[in-house]
Specification:
The protein has two domains: 30 residues; 106 residues, Lipocalin. It is 18% helix and 38% strand. It is built from two helices and ten strands. The longest helix has 24 residues.
Length: 156
């Protein structure tokens, strides 16, 4: 009896309302998925002087040698970074290749930027403790946020 009272355009409106309700619920559930940025690693913003020991006291060479220069690495990701006195840095990502960029210290962290062909890289470096005896890098890749503890190489 109810069907007899509804016209063909009413069925379309009901279907559209159901579709919109379903899409709204799906969007709500997807947005409630927690971000992967939860990490058990603590990091600190420290004074600029605490980072000085990680900076190579020379301009970036044409061909950086990470076997000799101060660098921070994470073999599990893998990533290698070397900072130079002229505000430039060198990186080696065995899965993507190597390249260069610029760095600054801002707000107690080191901010790295590099422009690649397909994307721009933004990496933040934090102290892993108040004395900055170890570092942590934080960035986002195609898998989401990454927070990695780094190993120091060639520090004096």
């Amino acid at each position: 009896m109810v069907q007899a009272l509804l016209g063909p355009q009413d069925y379309g409106a009901i279907k559209m309302k159901r579709l919109l309700t379903s899409l709204s619920l799906i969007s709500l559930f997807v947005s409630c998925v927690p971000d992967k940025e939860t990490s058990t690693l603590s990091y600190f913003e420290v004074d600029q002087a605490a980072y000085k020991k990680y900076v190579n006291q020379k301009p970036m060479p044409t061909e950086p040698d990470l076997a000799v220069d101060k660098s921070i690495i994470n073999n599990d990701y893998p990533i290698e970074l070397a900072l130079y006195q002229d505000g430039k840095f060198y990186y080696n990502l065995p899965n993507l290749g190597d390249g260069t960029g610029s760095w600054t210290i801002d707000g107690g962290k080191i901010k790295l930027f590099s422009s690649r062909t397909l994307f721009d890289m933004y990496i933040d470096i934090f102290a892993a403790d108040q004395s900055a005896s170890n570092l942590i890098v934080k960035f986002r890749d195609r898998h989401g946020p990454q927070i990695l503890k780094m190993i120091n190489e060639n520090l004096d």
